[in-house]
Design brief:
Elements lengths: L2 E6 L5 H14 L4 E4 L4 H8 L5 H9 L2 E4 L7 H10 L4 E7 L15 E7 L9 E3 L24 E3 L5 H16 L4 E6 L8 H12 L6 E6 H10 L6 E4 L1 H14 L9 E3 L4 E4 L17 H14 L2 H17 L13 H11 L1
Parallel strand pairs: 1-2, 1-3, 3-12, 5-10, 8-9, 8-10
Antiparallel strand pairs: 4-5, 4-11, 6-7, 11-12
Helix pairs in contact: 1-9, 1-11, 5-6, 7-8, 9-10, 10-11
The structure holds adenosine-5'-triphosphate.
Amino acid sequence: MTKTVAVIEGDDAAPEAVGPTIELLKSLDLNIEFTYPVVGDVAINDYGSPFPEEAKVLIDDADTTFFGSTSGSSGVALLYLRWGKGTYANVRPTRYFPGAPSALANPEGVDFIIVRENLEDLYLRTEGDLKDLSNLGLISKTSRKPIAELGEGRYAIKAITREGSERVIRFAFELARTRRHELTVTSKYNMLPESDGFFLEIAQELASEYPDVQMNHFIVDDFACRLVANPRQFDVTVMPNLYGDILSDAAAGLVGGLGLAASGCYGKDYAYFESAHGTAPDIVGRNIINPTANLLSAAMMLDYLGYNEASQRLHSAVVAVYADGDSLTPDVGGQASTQGLCDAVRARF
Ligand code: ATP
């Protein structure tokens, strides 16, 4: 059966990595049809809106979306893919490929996954002026000062809901079952017992449903230290949104940088795939953006679409290219172009 993938190439240097990645997928003859929703500035020109109904329909009609990083006006498409489609679990694997320039003395065997809650926490983006809270009678539990007396300032709401936490933690437990049967939960539950503590409580409740998975937990600052000092101790980890956002970029630094940081965002009935990095505006137009994050996200997408063998082969081809070492982009110590790395992966497929 034909599968449909909506492709949004993104902004700045992103299309330079997404384009050859999609060309590579097309060359595999996998019975995938690609559609191209028009978003951002081009859509403003053509349709009068950065995210026209036509683009939304193409995303809805597709089995999944492959998304290049965006900046500016096309960001609204990302809001739809995340909040509109309810893609609550952001899966960000960190795996060392021999040949990549790691920050670690001994990176062999580093292979863990951060499952980042993708829709809530501080990402409600409900921020405002502190004076708007002054009539609520709120008091700081640390300084004991009434919020009304804090003076000029701003606030942001951090929300950890039962539904939002349960679904992502359950997702992480299920993922752990496909790997080492180990799950690490982290948040700042000591300092924020009401919100981050609730996240941990829910994990502890769910643990009884997964007796075959060994669950442990660390406070997020301690977790960060352990992650850098001994990443091999971790397999599947789950955490609220902001910690996952920051720690997964930091984790990429352990194994060669953002150019290798793949990701998939999964919901109840939709998923989309994107690199974890941004649009790399500082290297636009040079054909040196590392396409590995896109290629690995594409492998995750093939798996999601049911092309499990092709997914494995694509992943193995990337590993082989890193082991060879002569077709790598400058960010990982090579001299190849984006296209050059993609061609080498295709040749190894
Ligand atoms: P965002 O906030 O959307 O994640 P950002 O502007 O903080 O984006 P990136 O666009 O990810 O960050 O870029 C951070 C740095 O990493 C830049 O110097 C960029 O060139 C580099 N970088 C990011 N992705 C890649 C890549 N795939 N290949 C090479 N360099 C990259």
